[in-house]
Amino acid sequence: MFEYLKIKTKLGDWNIVKVNLDPKSDLILRAARQAKQKVKHTIQAGQDGVSRSNKLKLQNQFRGMISEIYALELFKSWLANSELNNWEIIRYDDVRTDDFASPKNEYDIKIQKNGQGATILKIESRSSLTYNRSLTEGINDLDIIGPYISQAKAKENYVDYYIRPLYDNIQEMKAEEFSDFLKKDLINLYFVAGCSKQTMITKGKQKSMSQSGTTYKCLPITQGSDIIQFQKELIADLA
After folding, report:
1. Closest Cα partner for 183 from 18, 21, 1?
2. 3-state secondary structure string, 191-227?
3. What is the pLDDT of residues 126-185, one digit of tens each?
4. Tally of structural domains, the chain
5. What's the domain range around 145?
């Protein structure tokens, strides 16, 4: 399911994970099903305040669902390899009971320690496309995306960790063409970096990301941890 790779960046060698995407897999079928349910309850405007077509809303939701689901599977593999058997990993959209109607108390993924007084670590996954960049250029140029504020969301709390999924489109594409590219094997998914809440707070900067009315806390990917270092940091926190 996962292939660990090393590529050259402006900082030298950088470890990443490539996901072996199978459009017919149960994981992607689950993402498609959940995206169709969730998109019914999302606002029409994007973070830039511009109204989106229903197709674009669905494709963006589908893309985010896939990266979350595979992030969950990646964390499961890390726990299995570390033999930390007293933790469980939960993705909110897999266990929610509100039919996707309410954003209250939502989270992407949490790692929860079993037993009384359980410890909980929450992890955020925010994906994007490289569009007209190469994968290496994307890692050099783009950010790990933290909390944001907008006209629709006055505040978003920090979570414990952030992981960065990055989709690399093999040829030029538009966001609403995501499903078509996925079916034709013209897009790849990578997990390229991660960081802790403390790193995001102390090193991150506020950016508009070319979206008027929305401000993100961002950390350049190359100022975070590559995927191997991020794995070590997360597992050390759980040990």
Report:
1. 21
2. EEEEEEHHHHHHHCEEECCCCCCCEEEEEEHHHCECH
3. 999 999 999 999 999 999 999 988 766 667 899 999 999 999 998 999 999 999 999 999
4. 1
5. 2-238
